[in-house]
Write a structure and sequence with these properties.
heterodimer; A: alpha/beta; Aspartate Aminotransferase, domain 1; Aspartate Aminotransferase, domain 2; 2 domains; 7-stranded mixed β-sheet; 4-stranded antiparallel β-sheet; 13 strands; 45% helix; B: alpha+beta; Sufe protein. Chain: A; 3-stranded antiparallel β-sheet; two-stranded antiparallel sheet; 6 helices; 34% helix; globular
Protein backbone atom coordinates (compact mmCIF):
# COMPACT_ATOMS: atom_id res chain seq x y z
CA UNK A 1 0.00 0.00 0.00
CA UNK A 2 1.33 3.39 -0.94
CA UNK A 3 0.75 5.64 2.05
CA UNK A 4 1.65 9.30 1.88
CA UNK A 5 3.28 10.05 5.20
CA UNK A 6 2.75 13.63 6.30
CA UNK A 7 3.29 12.78 9.95
CA UNK A 8 7.05 12.82 10.22
CA UNK A 9 6.98 14.40 13.66
CA UNK A 10 5.58 11.10 14.97
CA UNK A 11 8.03 8.80 13.23
CA UNK A 12 10.67 8.82 10.54
CA UNK A 13 11.89 5.87 8.49
CA UNK A 14 15.51 4.81 8.92
CA UNK A 15 17.77 5.84 6.08
CA UNK A 16 19.12 2.80 4.16
CA UNK A 17 22.69 3.62 5.26
CA UNK A 18 21.50 3.68 8.89
CA UNK A 19 19.77 0.32 8.49
CA UNK A 20 22.90 -1.20 6.98
CA UNK A 21 25.12 0.16 9.73
CA UNK A 22 22.80 -1.21 12.41
CA UNK A 23 22.52 -4.63 10.80
CA UNK A 24 26.29 -4.71 10.56
CA UNK A 25 26.51 -3.72 14.21
CA UNK A 26 24.14 -6.52 15.21
CA UNK A 27 26.32 -9.02 13.35
CA UNK A 28 29.46 -7.67 15.00
CA UNK A 29 28.20 -8.94 18.37
CA UNK A 30 29.83 -6.05 20.15
CA UNK A 31 30.96 -6.63 23.71
CA UNK A 32 30.53 -4.20 26.60
CA UNK A 33 32.26 -0.87 25.91
CA UNK A 34 33.25 -0.67 29.57
CA UNK A 35 35.26 -3.93 29.49
CA UNK A 36 39.04 -3.74 29.74
CA UNK A 37 39.84 -6.34 27.09
CA UNK A 38 40.21 -6.07 23.33
CA UNK A 39 36.55 -6.94 22.74
CA UNK A 40 35.57 -4.12 25.04
CA UNK A 41 37.94 -1.73 23.29
CA UNK A 42 36.32 -2.56 19.96
CA UNK A 43 32.92 -1.69 21.32
CA UNK A 44 34.20 1.46 23.03
CA UNK A 45 35.72 2.57 19.76
CA UNK A 46 32.40 2.20 17.94
CA UNK A 47 30.66 4.06 20.76
CA UNK A 48 33.10 6.96 20.72
CA UNK A 49 32.96 7.19 16.94
CA UNK A 50 29.21 7.71 17.15
CA UNK A 51 29.71 10.25 19.92
CA UNK A 52 32.09 12.22 17.71
CA UNK A 53 29.56 12.24 14.88
CA UNK A 54 26.86 13.61 17.18
CA UNK A 55 29.29 16.11 18.72
CA UNK A 56 29.99 17.40 15.24
CA UNK A 57 26.29 17.55 14.38
CA UNK A 58 25.34 19.83 17.28
CA UNK A 59 28.71 21.63 17.43
CA UNK A 60 29.51 20.62 20.99
CA UNK A 61 33.01 21.64 22.11
CA UNK A 62 34.11 18.11 23.06
CA UNK A 63 32.54 14.63 22.75
CA UNK A 64 32.29 14.31 26.54
CA UNK A 65 29.53 16.90 26.41
CA UNK A 66 27.29 14.39 24.62
CA UNK A 67 25.40 11.86 26.76
CA UNK A 68 23.54 9.07 24.99
CA UNK A 69 20.08 8.35 26.38
CA UNK A 70 17.08 6.24 25.39
CA UNK A 71 14.98 9.07 23.93
CA UNK A 72 14.29 12.76 23.77
CA UNK A 73 11.95 12.25 26.68
CA UNK A 74 14.69 10.73 28.82
CA UNK A 75 17.06 13.54 27.89
CA UNK A 76 14.48 16.12 28.98
CA UNK A 77 13.74 14.30 32.24
CA UNK A 78 17.47 14.00 32.85
CA UNK A 79 18.11 17.68 32.26
CA UNK A 80 15.18 19.01 34.28
CA UNK A 81 15.19 16.61 37.21
CA UNK A 82 18.95 16.14 37.16
CA UNK A 83 19.65 19.85 37.53
CA UNK A 84 16.87 20.31 40.08
CA UNK A 85 18.21 17.55 42.30
CA UNK A 86 21.83 18.61 41.90
CA UNK A 87 21.12 22.23 42.77
CA UNK A 88 18.27 21.84 45.28
CA UNK A 89 20.49 23.18 48.07
CA UNK A 90 20.95 26.42 46.09
CA UNK A 91 17.29 26.98 45.31
CA UNK A 92 14.08 25.30 44.30
CA UNK A 93 12.68 27.57 41.62
CA UNK A 94 12.46 26.78 37.91
CA UNK A 95 11.28 28.94 35.00
CA UNK A 96 9.58 27.46 31.96
CA UNK A 97 7.04 28.44 29.28
CA UNK A 98 3.34 27.73 28.84
CA UNK A 99 3.79 25.64 25.70
CA UNK A 100 6.40 23.04 26.68
CA UNK A 101 6.15 19.37 25.78
CA UNK A 102 4.69 17.07 28.40
CA UNK A 103 8.15 15.66 29.09
CA UNK A 104 9.04 19.04 30.57
CA UNK A 105 5.62 19.81 32.06
CA UNK A 106 5.24 16.49 33.82
CA UNK A 107 8.83 16.47 35.03
CA UNK A 108 8.11 19.84 36.59
CA UNK A 109 4.86 18.60 38.06
CA UNK A 110 6.78 15.78 39.69
CA UNK A 111 9.29 18.27 41.07
CA UNK A 112 6.45 20.41 42.44
CA UNK A 113 5.45 17.40 44.52
CA UNK A 114 8.95 17.66 46.00
CA UNK A 115 8.49 21.32 46.98
CA UNK A 116 10.01 22.91 43.91
CA UNK A 117 8.30 26.02 42.59
CA UNK A 118 7.70 26.72 38.92
CA UNK A 119 7.03 29.97 37.09
CA UNK A 120 5.64 29.56 33.61
CA UNK A 121 6.02 32.50 31.22
CA UNK A 122 3.35 33.16 28.58
CA UNK A 123 3.75 33.21 24.81
CA UNK A 124 2.36 35.65 22.26
CA UNK A 125 -0.24 34.82 19.61
CA UNK A 126 2.50 33.18 17.51
CA UNK A 127 3.71 31.07 20.40
CA UNK A 128 6.86 33.07 21.13
CA UNK A 129 8.36 33.71 24.54
CA UNK A 130 9.57 37.21 25.33
CA UNK A 131 13.11 37.03 26.83
CA UNK A 132 12.21 39.99 29.07
CA UNK A 133 9.50 37.85 30.67
CA UNK A 134 12.11 35.21 31.41
CA UNK A 135 14.37 37.83 32.97
CA UNK A 136 11.50 39.06 35.14
CA UNK A 137 10.58 35.53 36.22
CA UNK A 138 14.08 34.69 37.45
CA UNK A 139 14.43 35.00 41.24
CA UNK A 140 17.33 34.65 43.65
CA UNK A 141 16.44 31.00 44.18
CA UNK A 142 16.01 30.16 40.48
CA UNK A 143 18.27 27.28 39.47
CA UNK A 144 17.06 26.43 35.96
CA UNK A 145 15.28 27.86 32.94
CA UNK A 146 13.82 25.26 30.57
CA UNK A 147 12.34 26.58 27.34
CA UNK A 148 11.89 24.55 24.20
CA UNK A 149 13.78 25.35 21.00
CA UNK A 150 10.81 24.62 18.76
CA UNK A 151 7.25 23.61 19.46
CA UNK A 152 5.99 20.24 18.23
CA UNK A 153 2.40 21.41 17.69
CA UNK A 154 2.76 24.80 16.04
CA UNK A 155 6.42 24.81 14.97
CA UNK A 156 7.34 28.14 16.54
CA UNK A 157 11.05 28.59 17.20
CA UNK A 158 11.98 30.46 20.37
CA UNK A 159 14.60 33.22 20.73
CA UNK A 160 16.95 30.80 22.49
CA UNK A 161 20.09 32.89 22.00
CA UNK A 162 18.46 35.93 23.58
CA UNK A 163 17.14 33.88 26.49
CA UNK A 164 20.61 32.36 26.96
CA UNK A 165 22.02 35.89 27.31
CA UNK A 166 19.54 36.47 30.12
CA UNK A 167 20.35 33.23 31.92
CA UNK A 168 24.09 33.80 31.55
CA UNK A 169 23.79 37.25 33.04
CA UNK A 170 21.64 35.94 35.89
CA UNK A 171 23.90 32.91 36.37
CA UNK A 172 21.09 30.39 35.98
CA UNK A 173 21.37 27.15 34.01
CA UNK A 174 19.46 26.98 30.73
CA UNK A 175 18.04 23.80 29.18
CA UNK A 176 16.31 23.69 25.82
CA UNK A 177 14.22 20.86 24.37
CA UNK A 178 15.40 20.70 20.76
CA UNK A 179 13.93 17.29 19.95
CA UNK A 180 12.00 18.56 16.93
CA UNK A 181 14.67 21.02 15.83
CA UNK A 182 17.90 19.11 15.31
CA UNK A 183 18.55 18.84 11.54
CA UNK A 184 15.19 20.49 10.77
CA UNK A 185 17.08 23.69 11.53
CA UNK A 186 20.85 23.94 12.03
CA UNK A 187 21.71 23.60 15.72
CA UNK A 188 24.93 24.92 17.21
CA UNK A 189 24.93 24.55 20.98
CA UNK A 190 27.83 26.96 21.43
CA UNK A 191 26.24 29.64 19.32
CA UNK A 192 22.93 29.18 21.14
CA UNK A 193 24.70 29.50 24.47
CA UNK A 194 22.63 26.86 26.26
CA UNK A 195 23.92 24.67 29.10
CA UNK A 196 21.80 21.64 28.28
CA UNK A 197 20.05 20.60 25.07
CA UNK A 198 17.82 17.56 24.56
CA UNK A 199 17.50 15.82 21.23
CA UNK A 200 16.69 12.45 19.69
CA UNK A 201 17.89 10.35 16.80
CA UNK A 202 14.67 9.59 14.94
CA UNK A 203 13.93 13.16 13.75
CA UNK A 204 17.07 12.90 11.61
CA UNK A 205 16.24 9.40 10.36
CA UNK A 206 18.13 7.47 13.01
CA UNK A 207 16.52 4.75 15.13
CA UNK A 208 13.98 5.36 17.88
CA UNK A 209 15.10 4.33 21.35
CA UNK A 210 18.17 6.59 21.20
CA UNK A 211 18.46 10.18 22.26
CA UNK A 212 21.13 12.58 23.31
CA UNK A 213 21.64 15.16 25.98
CA UNK A 214 24.18 17.91 25.54
CA UNK A 215 25.66 18.91 28.88
CA UNK A 216 28.11 21.82 28.77
CA UNK A 217 31.35 20.97 30.56
CA UNK A 218 31.14 21.71 34.28
CA UNK A 219 27.33 21.76 34.40
CA UNK A 220 26.07 20.16 37.58
CA UNK A 221 23.44 17.55 36.77
CA UNK A 222 22.61 14.35 38.60
CA UNK A 223 22.09 11.13 36.67
CA UNK A 224 18.55 9.81 36.38
CA UNK A 225 19.88 6.28 36.45
CA UNK A 226 22.42 5.33 39.09
CA UNK A 227 24.76 2.39 38.70
CA UNK A 228 27.97 2.18 36.70
CA UNK A 229 30.03 5.06 35.41
CA UNK A 230 28.96 4.81 31.77
CA UNK A 231 28.50 7.98 29.73
CA UNK A 232 31.13 9.78 31.75
CA UNK A 233 29.29 9.05 34.96
CA UNK A 234 26.13 10.76 33.75
CA UNK A 235 24.00 7.78 32.79
CA UNK A 236 24.46 4.31 34.21
CA UNK A 237 23.61 1.17 32.27
CA UNK A 238 25.34 -0.61 29.40
CA UNK A 239 24.89 1.50 26.28
CA UNK A 240 22.44 0.64 23.50
CA UNK A 241 25.36 0.38 21.10
CA UNK A 242 23.43 -0.77 18.03
CA UNK A 243 21.05 2.15 18.32
CA UNK A 244 23.85 4.57 19.09
CA UNK A 245 25.79 3.41 16.00
CA UNK A 246 22.65 4.05 13.96
CA UNK A 247 22.35 7.52 15.45
CA UNK A 248 26.00 8.24 14.66
CA UNK A 249 25.59 7.27 11.00
CA UNK A 250 22.36 9.30 10.79
CA UNK A 251 24.26 12.28 12.23
CA UNK A 252 27.04 11.95 9.62
CA UNK A 253 24.48 11.83 6.82
CA UNK A 254 22.56 14.76 8.29
CA UNK A 255 25.63 16.98 8.39
CA UNK A 256 26.20 16.39 4.66
CA UNK A 257 22.56 16.58 3.62
CA UNK A 258 21.09 19.20 5.96
CA UNK A 259 20.92 22.16 3.58
CA UNK A 260 19.19 20.12 0.88
CA UNK A 261 16.69 18.67 3.38
CA UNK A 262 15.81 22.05 4.81
CA UNK A 263 15.35 23.56 1.34
CA UNK A 264 13.09 20.63 0.41
CA UNK A 265 10.94 20.99 3.54
CA UNK A 266 10.66 24.71 2.96
CA UNK A 267 9.56 24.25 -0.64
CA UNK A 268 6.77 21.85 0.41
CA UNK A 269 5.66 24.06 3.29
CA UNK A 270 5.51 27.13 1.05
CA UNK A 271 3.46 25.13 -1.41
CA UNK A 272 0.91 24.10 1.24
CA UNK A 273 0.61 27.63 2.60
CA UNK A 274 0.21 29.00 -0.92
CA UNK A 275 -2.43 26.47 -1.97
CA UNK A 276 -4.41 26.23 1.26
CA UNK A 277 -6.52 29.36 0.59
CA UNK A 278 -7.58 27.78 -2.73
CA UNK A 279 -8.50 24.56 -0.94
CA UNK A 280 -10.44 25.43 2.21
CA UNK A 281 -11.80 28.51 3.92
CA UNK A 282 -12.15 29.59 7.54
CA UNK A 283 -8.96 28.26 9.06
CA UNK A 284 -6.02 29.58 11.05
CA UNK A 285 -2.39 28.76 10.40
CA UNK A 286 -0.78 28.34 13.82
CA UNK A 287 2.70 29.41 14.73
CA UNK A 288 5.09 32.19 13.78
CA UNK A 289 5.21 33.21 10.11
CA UNK A 290 9.00 33.53 10.19
CA UNK A 291 10.45 31.78 13.23
CA UNK A 292 9.01 28.35 12.57
CA UNK A 293 10.07 24.82 11.72
CA UNK A 294 10.33 24.52 7.92
CA UNK A 295 8.84 21.00 7.93
CA UNK A 296 5.70 21.69 9.97
CA UNK A 297 2.30 23.19 9.12
CA UNK A 298 -0.32 23.48 11.87
CA UNK A 299 -3.82 24.44 10.81
CA UNK A 300 -6.95 24.92 12.91
CA UNK A 301 -9.95 24.30 10.67
CA UNK A 302 -13.17 25.81 11.95
CA UNK A 303 -16.35 23.82 12.67
CA UNK A 304 -14.78 20.36 12.47
CA UNK A 305 -12.85 18.06 14.77
CA UNK A 306 -9.32 16.87 14.13
CA UNK A 307 -9.63 13.15 14.72
CA UNK A 308 -12.36 12.98 12.09
CA UNK A 309 -10.01 14.67 9.63
CA UNK A 310 -7.24 12.19 10.45
CA UNK A 311 -9.61 9.24 9.90
CA UNK A 312 -10.94 10.66 6.62
CA UNK A 313 -7.43 11.23 5.30
CA UNK A 314 -6.33 7.82 6.53
CA UNK A 315 -9.10 6.25 4.44
CA UNK A 316 -7.35 7.79 1.44
CA UNK A 317 -3.94 6.57 2.63
CA UNK A 318 -2.67 9.90 3.85
CA UNK A 319 -1.18 10.05 7.35
CA UNK A 320 -1.46 13.29 9.29
CA UNK A 321 -1.67 14.13 12.96
CA UNK A 322 -4.09 16.13 15.06
CA UNK A 323 -4.00 17.99 18.36
CA UNK A 324 -7.66 17.38 19.04
CA UNK A 325 -8.39 16.36 22.61
CA UNK A 326 -10.40 13.35 21.47
CA UNK A 327 -7.57 11.89 19.45
CA UNK A 328 -4.92 12.55 22.04
CA UNK A 329 -6.80 10.39 24.52
CA UNK A 330 -6.11 13.12 27.00
CA UNK A 331 -9.61 14.61 26.79
CA UNK A 332 -8.10 18.04 27.12
CA UNK A 333 -7.65 20.75 24.56
CA UNK A 334 -4.02 21.28 23.66
CA UNK A 335 -2.38 23.63 26.17
CA UNK A 336 -0.26 24.98 23.34
CA UNK A 337 -3.23 25.99 21.19
CA UNK A 338 -5.09 27.51 24.15
CA UNK A 339 -1.91 29.43 25.05
CA UNK A 340 -1.78 31.11 21.64
CA UNK A 341 -5.42 32.12 21.99
CA UNK A 342 -7.33 29.47 20.05
CA UNK A 343 -10.71 28.75 21.59
CA UNK A 344 -11.69 25.23 22.56
CA UNK A 345 -13.63 24.41 19.39
CA UNK A 346 -10.94 25.73 17.05
CA UNK A 347 -8.26 23.85 18.98
CA UNK A 348 -10.34 20.72 18.38
CA UNK A 349 -10.08 21.19 14.62
CA UNK A 350 -6.31 21.31 14.51
CA UNK A 351 -4.29 19.24 12.10
CA UNK A 352 -0.51 19.04 12.04
CA UNK A 353 1.35 17.97 8.93
CA UNK A 354 5.09 17.39 8.95
CA UNK A 355 7.16 16.71 5.86
CA UNK A 356 9.96 14.24 5.32
CA UNK A 357 12.67 14.03 2.72
CA UNK A 358 10.70 11.51 0.64
CA UNK A 359 7.62 13.72 0.27
CA UNK A 360 7.01 15.22 -3.16
CA UNK A 361 4.94 18.04 -4.63
CA UNK A 362 2.66 15.32 -5.93
CA UNK A 363 2.06 14.18 -2.33
CA UNK A 364 1.10 17.72 -1.38
CA UNK A 365 -1.32 18.01 -4.31
CA UNK A 366 -2.98 14.73 -3.41
CA UNK A 367 -3.20 15.80 0.24
CA UNK A 368 -4.85 19.09 -0.65
CA UNK A 369 -7.35 17.40 -2.93
CA UNK A 370 -8.38 14.86 -0.28
CA UNK A 371 -8.42 17.50 2.47
CA UNK A 372 -10.85 19.63 0.51
CA UNK A 373 -13.37 16.80 0.29
CA UNK A 374 -12.90 15.71 3.90
CA UNK A 375 -13.45 19.21 5.27
CA UNK A 376 -16.60 19.66 3.20
CA UNK A 377 -18.01 16.27 4.26
CA UNK A 378 -17.39 16.97 7.95
CA UNK A 379 -18.75 20.48 7.76
CA UNK A 380 -21.92 19.14 6.16
CA UNK A 381 -22.40 17.05 9.32
CA UNK A 382 -21.39 19.79 11.75
CA UNK A 383 -24.03 21.78 13.67
CA UNK A 384 -21.44 24.52 14.21
CA UNK A 385 -21.04 25.04 10.48
CA UNK A 386 -24.81 25.12 9.98
CA UNK A 387 -25.15 27.71 12.77
CA UNK A 388 -22.34 29.84 11.37
CA UNK A 389 -23.92 29.74 7.92
CA UNK A 390 -27.25 30.95 9.35
CA UNK A 391 -25.65 33.78 11.32
CA UNK B 1 -8.76 1.34 16.98
CA UNK B 2 -12.40 1.41 15.87
CA UNK B 3 -14.61 -1.54 14.91
CA UNK B 4 -15.70 -2.03 11.31
CA UNK B 5 -19.22 -0.92 12.19
CA UNK B 6 -17.94 2.30 13.75
CA UNK B 7 -15.87 3.05 10.66
CA UNK B 8 -18.84 2.26 8.41
CA UNK B 9 -21.09 4.69 10.28
CA UNK B 10 -18.32 7.29 10.38
CA UNK B 11 -17.68 7.07 6.64
CA UNK B 12 -21.33 6.78 5.63
CA UNK B 13 -23.31 8.44 8.39
CA UNK B 14 -27.07 7.82 8.21
CA UNK B 15 -29.71 10.50 8.72
CA UNK B 16 -27.45 13.54 8.58
CA UNK B 17 -29.14 16.90 8.50
CA UNK B 18 -31.97 18.90 10.00
CA UNK B 19 -35.77 18.70 9.90
CA UNK B 20 -37.73 21.80 8.96
CA UNK B 21 -40.41 22.34 11.59
CA UNK B 22 -39.18 19.52 13.81
CA UNK B 23 -41.46 18.44 16.66
CA UNK B 24 -38.60 18.00 19.07
CA UNK B 25 -34.99 19.16 19.14
CA UNK B 26 -32.26 18.01 21.53
CA UNK B 27 -28.89 19.71 21.71
CA UNK B 28 -26.09 18.38 23.83
CA UNK B 29 -22.64 19.85 24.09
CA UNK B 30 -19.85 18.07 25.83
CA UNK B 31 -17.17 20.57 26.67
CA UNK B 32 -15.00 17.82 28.13
CA UNK B 33 -13.81 16.77 24.71
CA UNK B 34 -15.64 19.24 22.52
CA UNK B 35 -18.30 17.02 21.00
CA UNK B 36 -21.62 18.64 20.21
CA UNK B 37 -24.70 17.01 18.83
CA UNK B 38 -28.16 18.07 17.72
CA UNK B 39 -31.06 15.65 17.19
CA UNK B 40 -34.19 16.59 15.25
CA UNK B 41 -37.37 14.56 15.59
CA UNK B 42 -40.57 14.33 13.58
CA UNK B 43 -43.25 12.68 15.69
CA UNK B 44 -46.44 11.09 14.38
CA UNK B 45 -48.85 9.26 16.70
CA UNK B 46 -46.27 9.25 19.52
CA UNK B 47 -43.85 7.51 17.18
CA UNK B 48 -40.58 8.80 15.67
CA UNK B 49 -41.39 9.10 11.98
CA UNK B 50 -38.17 10.89 11.03
CA UNK B 51 -34.91 11.65 12.78
CA UNK B 52 -31.86 13.66 11.72
CA UNK B 53 -28.63 14.66 13.39
CA UNK B 54 -25.75 17.08 13.17
CA UNK B 55 -22.55 16.40 15.07
CA UNK B 56 -19.28 18.17 15.67
CA UNK B 57 -16.88 15.63 17.02
CA UNK B 58 -14.50 12.74 16.62
CA UNK B 59 -15.03 9.57 14.61
CA UNK B 60 -16.75 7.86 17.53
CA UNK B 61 -19.13 10.77 18.11
CA UNK B 62 -20.22 10.80 14.48
CA UNK B 63 -20.67 7.01 14.41
CA UNK B 64 -22.63 7.13 17.69
CA UNK B 65 -24.95 9.80 16.28
CA UNK B 66 -25.54 7.84 13.11
CA UNK B 67 -26.20 4.56 14.92
CA UNK B 68 -28.48 6.25 17.41
CA UNK B 69 -30.69 7.61 14.64
CA UNK B 70 -30.94 4.14 13.12
CA UNK B 71 -31.92 2.61 16.47
CA UNK B 72 -34.49 5.29 17.22
CA UNK B 73 -36.10 5.73 13.82
CA UNK B 74 -39.63 4.33 13.71
CA UNK B 75 -39.75 3.59 17.43
CA UNK B 76 -42.54 4.63 19.78
CA UNK B 77 -41.52 7.34 22.22
CA UNK B 78 -41.67 5.06 25.25
CA UNK B 79 -39.40 2.57 23.55
CA UNK B 80 -37.08 5.29 22.27
CA UNK B 81 -36.70 6.67 25.79
CA UNK B 82 -35.27 3.33 26.83
CA UNK B 83 -32.35 3.52 24.37
CA UNK B 84 -29.18 3.98 26.37
CA UNK B 85 -25.71 4.99 25.40
CA UNK B 86 -24.72 1.43 26.17
CA UNK B 87 -27.18 0.16 23.55
CA UNK B 88 -25.63 2.43 20.97
CA UNK B 89 -22.11 1.35 21.84
CA UNK B 90 -23.18 -2.28 21.70
CA UNK B 91 -24.79 -1.84 18.28
CA UNK B 92 -21.49 -0.33 17.13
CA UNK B 93 -19.69 -3.48 18.29
CA UNK B 94 -18.00 -1.60 21.06
CA UNK B 95 -16.08 1.62 21.45
CA UNK B 96 -12.69 2.20 23.00
CA UNK B 97 -13.13 2.87 26.73
CA UNK B 98 -12.13 6.51 26.59
CA UNK B 99 -14.48 7.01 23.65
CA UNK B 100 -17.40 5.55 25.57
CA UNK B 101 -17.01 8.56 27.77
CA UNK B 102 -16.95 11.24 25.12
CA UNK B 103 -19.64 9.60 23.05
CA UNK B 104 -22.13 9.43 25.87
CA UNK B 105 -23.98 12.37 24.45
CA UNK B 106 -25.84 10.30 21.86
CA UNK B 107 -28.74 8.95 23.88
CA UNK B 108 -28.75 12.11 26.00
CA UNK B 109 -29.51 14.20 22.91
CA UNK B 110 -32.30 11.83 21.89
CA UNK B 111 -33.90 11.89 25.33
CA UNK B 112 -33.66 15.63 25.38
CA UNK B 113 -35.34 15.88 21.98
CA UNK B 114 -38.19 13.67 23.22
CA UNK B 115 -38.48 15.79 26.37
CA UNK B 116 -38.51 18.90 24.23
CA UNK B 117 -41.42 17.43 22.24
CA UNK B 118 -43.36 16.59 25.40
CA UNK B 119 -42.67 19.99 26.92
CA UNK B 120 -43.88 21.74 23.81
CA UNK B 121 -47.01 19.62 23.82
CA UNK B 122 -47.79 20.57 27.40
CA UNK B 123 -46.90 24.20 26.68
CA UNK B 124 -44.03 24.17 29.17
CA UNK B 125 -41.32 25.44 26.91
CA UNK B 126 -40.54 27.60 23.95
CA UNK B 127 -39.82 25.76 20.71
CA UNK B 128 -36.05 26.37 20.96
CA UNK B 129 -34.43 24.13 23.56
CA UNK B 130 -31.58 25.36 25.68
CA UNK B 131 -28.27 23.70 25.07
CA UNK B 132 -26.91 21.93 28.08
CA UNK B 133 -23.30 22.91 28.40
CA UNK B 134 -22.35 20.49 31.08
CA UNK B 135 -22.32 16.84 30.18
CA UNK B 136 -24.31 15.06 32.81
CA UNK B 137 -23.82 11.44 33.61
CA UNK B 138 -27.47 10.72 34.03
CA UNK B 139 -27.38 7.13 32.95
CA UNK B 140 -24.89 5.75 35.40
CA UNK B 141 -22.07 5.25 32.92
CA UNK B 142 -18.67 4.90 34.43
CA UNK B 143 -15.82 7.17 33.38
CA UNK B 144 -12.42 5.64 32.86
CA UNK B 145 -8.96 7.11 33.06
CA UNK B 146 -7.84 7.42 29.44
CA UNK B 147 -4.34 6.35 30.43
CA UNK B 148 -4.66 3.34 32.71
CA UNK B 149 -8.34 2.38 32.20
CA UNK B 150 -8.96 2.61 35.94
CA UNK B 151 -12.49 3.58 36.91
CA UNK B 152 -12.67 7.19 37.94
CA UNK B 153 -14.62 8.01 41.09
CA UNK B 154 -17.95 9.62 40.18
CA UNK B 155 -17.59 13.24 39.15
CA UNK B 156 -13.82 13.05 39.43
CA UNK B 157 -11.51 14.04 36.62
CA UNK B 158 -8.39 13.10 38.52
CA UNK B 159 -7.07 9.57 38.33
CA UNK B 160 -5.71 8.57 41.73
CA UNK B 161 -3.74 5.70 40.18
CA UNK B 162 -1.70 7.65 37.67
CA UNK B 163 -1.90 11.04 39.36
CA UNK B 164 -3.26 12.62 36.23
CA UNK B 165 -6.05 14.93 35.34
CA UNK B 166 -8.31 13.02 32.96
CA UNK B 167 -10.04 16.13 31.73
CA UNK B 168 -11.29 19.41 32.99
CA UNK B 169 -14.75 20.85 32.79
CA UNK B 170 -14.25 24.26 31.31
Amino acid sequence: MNIINLDHISANPLLPEVQEAMIKAIRMNYANPSSQHKLGDQAAEALEKARESVTHLIHAAIPKEVVFTSSGTESINHAVKGVALALADKGKHIVTSNIEHNAVLRSLRRLKMMDFQVTSVPVDQYGRVNPDDVAKAIRDDTILVSIMHSNNEIGTIQPIKEIAEVTKQKKVLFHTDAVDSVVVVPIDVQQLGVDLLSFASNPFYGPTGVGGLYVRRGTKVWPLLDGGVQENNKRAGTENLIGIIGMGVAADLAVKDMDRRIAHYKMLKDMVLRELPNTIDEYFVNGHPEFSLPNLVSVSIKYIEGESVVLMLDEENIAVSTRSACAAGALQASHVLLSIGRDFADAQGTMVITFGIENSEEDVNRFLEVLKGAVQTLRDISPLYAKAAQA
Amino acid sequence: MYSKTVMDHFKNPRNVGTIEGADGVGEVGNPLCGDMMTIYLKIEDERISDIKFQTFGCGAAIAVSSMLTELANGKGLEEARKITNKDVAKALEGLPKNKLHCSNLGADALHMAIQNYEDRKSGKTKPEPKRTEKHEHTHGETCYCPYCDAELPEGETYCPACELEAGKHH
